[in-house]
Amino acid sequence: MNKKAAVAGAGISGLYACYLLEKKGYAVDLFEQSDKIGGRMCSERKSGFIIDRGFHVLQTGYPTANRIFSYDSLGCKAFEPGALVIRPDPVKPKVWRFSDPFRRPLKGISSVLNLFTSPFNLIRVGLLRLKVSRISDAGVFQGSGQSTLEFLRSRGFTEPFIKRFFLPLFSGIFLESDLRTDSRMFTFVFKNMSRGDMVLPEDGISAYPKQLYSMLDNTKLKLNTSVSQKSPNEIVVDDITYSYDIVIRAHSNADDNTTRGVWTLYFSAPKSPLKENYIMLNSSISLADNLISHLAVPSDIQPSYAPTGKSLIAVTVVEDAAKKRGLTHSDEVESAVLQELKNWFPEEIRTWQTLDVQHINSALPDHNASHYDNLGNSSNGISCGDFTFHGSVEGALISALMAVEKSIEIAARR
């Protein structure tokens, strides 16, 4: 008798769960409520541009993702390791380059010479990098945690450096503007950023789930289909009950956890405002009236993201920063961002046109310290997704592996 499994949710974790189940000899029915696969990792084409749902990069340092995805076949290209940091000013903005001294030693030296920060902060970055490189990914989440801000202070970083570098970078990653995220998650991300590159695929972020789907041989995909779970091995579709050997839920319910939101604004420009292929951080993000965490130009990395003669600009605004300003509607956020960008690129901004203003309400799970204390111990039955592990592509993939292993173990006991 053939073994049958059902997976509800065709995001990155659900797709990987299907792949793992197939490897264990299961025929899989994959149900997706929307009209496409990929979940939050989706892209669309608009006026010749590739518009990702939120600004996404994938870290090649993630070991599970690195085993699954073929970055070469996806035509992935990398941002420069490090960042540009801007001090906005309506007359003369100041820009510093902060390069990874381990991978770009000559440019790294210039980060000291350009007076962006003291050499002691750069030494502390190097020492932190050395420390986390000696810890396994699993070991990162052992022990007790503290906030990222408390952790950085305990490592001796100065307040100005935290506000000018770590805050704009990691507020855009963690989607919160206070560095309150558990330090164990910070250590995990910092470790993987240090050993890999931030890459974009040629055809947009949706290329990752599409590649995973192409690896499936014995999975039937059913789009626009809502599923409810009746029992551990039964689901209901259109009022009909179906039985399976294994049922895995690969989507979160509204009551599973709180979430973090983000605004992503895309602009068309005649040319890139950046001279180098870095992400640009806002050194003034800690000021009360500032919104933008960082800005990137995906078309500088992947020319396919924009039509010939155009550049695609991506601006990230953390939702809680917008709420502090009382901004809740897209036109309000767009207006405030354009006003702020006048202090970044006083001349260039006049030629920019808005392509899209996205509000992603549930972009990341909002995990507290107790979640990391019990990482992977989901109380929601057999389920997977970053809401069960941690908020990253790597976390979503690991959660799928754990869910499949657990479900097979339970099925064997029946």
Could you characterize what this model shows?
The chain has 414 residues and is α+β, with helices and mostly antiparallel strands. Helices cover 33% and strands 24% of the residues. It contains 14 helices and 19 strands. It has helices at residues 12-23, 63-68, 105-113, 119-133, 137-140, 148-154, 159-174, 183-195, 207-214, 298-301, 319-324, 330-341, 369-373, 393-413; strands at 3-8, 26-31, 43-46, 49-52, 58-59, 77-78, 82-87, 94-99, 198-200, 219-222, 228-231, 234-237, 240-243, 246-249, 259-269, 280-282, 292-296, 311-318, 353-365. It has a seven-stranded mixed sheet. Strand 11 and strand 12 form a beta hairpin. The relative contact order is 0.20.
Largest sheet: 7 strands, mixed
Structural class: alpha+beta
Strand line-up of the largest beta sheet: 8-7-16-17-18-15-19
CATH architectural arrangement of the largest domain: Alpha-Beta Complex
Radius of gyration: 22 Å
Count of helical regions: 14
Q: Could you say which overall geometry the principal axes of the C-alpha atoms support?
A: globular
How much helix is in the residues?
Answer: 25-40%
Q: What's the end-to-end separation, in Å?
A: 15 Å
